[in-house]
Amino acid sequence: MIAIPSRHRSLVLFAIVVVAQVLLLAVHIRRDVQGGQDRLIRVWIVGAVSPFERAGSWGVQKLRGTWNHYFALRQAARENEDLRRERDALKLTANRLQGKAAEAERLAALLNFRDAHKEVPMLAARVVGASADNANQTIFLDRGERDGVRRNMGVITPDGVVGKVIDSYRDTAQVLLLTDRESGVGAMLADSRIQSPVGGVGEPLLVMKYVANDDTVNSGERVVTSGMDRIFPKDLPVGTVVEIKPGNPFKQIRIRPAANLERLEEVIVLLTLQPIDLKKEPEAKAAAPAKSERAEPAAEKP
Amino acid sequence: MNDTFDIRSGAETHIEVHKFRAGAIVAATLAALVLQKLLPVYVPKADLLDLPLLITMYFGLSRRNPSTGLLLGTVIGLLQDSLSKSPLGLNGIAKTLVGYIASSIGGRLDTEHPASRFALAVVFCGLHQGVIVLIKRLLLAQPEAWFTARLGLAAVVNGVVAVGLFILLDHLRKPS
């Protein structure tokens, strides 16, 4: 038996612990490469911590509700005055908005999406947590395997694409946000229809990766999903081009996400692992008026 | 986990001994992990904080026992990895090192003054990030920048938060 001087024992323990974790890393990477998942420890720990997380989230919601309904009433009179002014301003804004065809088109696109994909089951979920370390851009939802959430399902908000489910546990699911450096979505420019994946770089803005220098891209142009990743349906808003620089060999295009990824509280999970058949979209659009025609007489029935 | 400890080094007989209330370390660790996950949902830019790192640091500096310091760092780091998408061991190794160094130097430095606590938190944040980048580059083949403005800001934010947090955690000590 090798005798270790007592003053070196902690150093030896340190070496053993670090080597053990390097081996753990190696095992994790190996399993990842082989397509498996190193889930056992994570399932236990997520299962143990998620009740506290849910309780914390519930507590914060209650606290905010109490504050908004009781304590904030002290400012009700001032707010009432502000709201009156705001109402007048909103009336003017509403009139202007009615004339904006672009806004209407965007809303119509979303409505069409819902109509065209009624067969796609969707599930509303609340965000109950973020990543435990700041190196990753992930969030945790209050829905999991029990609600039908599975790995690789798409997650959206009415504003646009959020990310995809990378792990699903019993009562919670982890979602990789678009802004994570390992994230990506099949996308295209809404006007020119140039296709290129959009991914994160760990910052609030996204990057469009493979647009040739010869292609014309305008600042402010909308970016939508192309449907080519077979996770998200076509024409969902991804973001808006905010910066374009020539690069080698591709343009450097930065995009502001359409969904507010820094303040997510509620999201929609697309509860399907089947790629949405793009051919169905026009058919569904064509079928939609026919359906509504059929539905109207039915609605008139007592 | 044993929440009491003693220092019996002959050369450092005047080092102040801190004992903590029962369950204080477990409760503080759990609270830090839950808050680390909850805060970014409600507070923008809260992901700059690394509360588990600050907890590792505080108890490492207070315990001044390298073995318990490094083991606490290991446990907190592995828990953090499990609750994120990081490979198991990434934060584990970084926080093991932080726990080991913090508990090794705890007896040699003034760790009670707010200025030294701020400086230590900034330095440990930089060290922690350096180890993470090193592991990512060497073991995971992920190119990562050694320094960004965001990391600098995160170190300062963690330093400021550490000053307030450590005062709160001081209340978990048993009166001597």
Order of helices and strands of chain B: HHHHHH
Radius of gyration of chain A: 25 Å
Major beta-sheet overview of chain A: 6 strands, antiparallel, barrel
Which overall shape of chain B is indicated by the principal axes computed on the Cα atoms? Answer: globular
Total strands of chain A: the figure is: 12
Helix share, percent of chain A = 25-40%
Strand content of chain B: under 5%
**Tally of alpha and pi helices of chain B:** 6
Largest beta-sheet details of chain B: none
Number of strands of chain B: 0
The secondary structure category of chain B is mainly alpha
Termini of chain A, distance in Å? Answer: 91 Å
Which strands sit side by side, in order, in the main sheet of chain A?
1-2-5-4-3-12
User: What percentage of residues of chain B falls in helices of 4 or more residues?
Assistant: 55-70%
What can you see in these coordinates?
The complex is a heterodimer of chains A (302) and B (176). Chain A contains five helices and twelve strands. The model of chain A is unreliable at 278-302 (pLDDT under 50). With 302 residues, chain A is of the alpha+beta class. Chain A has helices spanning 6-33, 40-69, 76-98, 101-116, 280-300; strands spanning 122-130, 138-141, 154-157, 160-168, 173-177, 184-189, 195-200, 206-208, 222-225, 237-245, 252-257, 266-270. In chain A, helix 4 packs across helix 5. Chain B has six helices and no strands. Chain B has helices at residues 24-42, 51-63, 66-82, 90-105, 114-138, 149-170. At the A-B interface, helix 1, helix 2, strand 1 and strand 2 of A face helix 1, helix 3 and helix 4 of B.
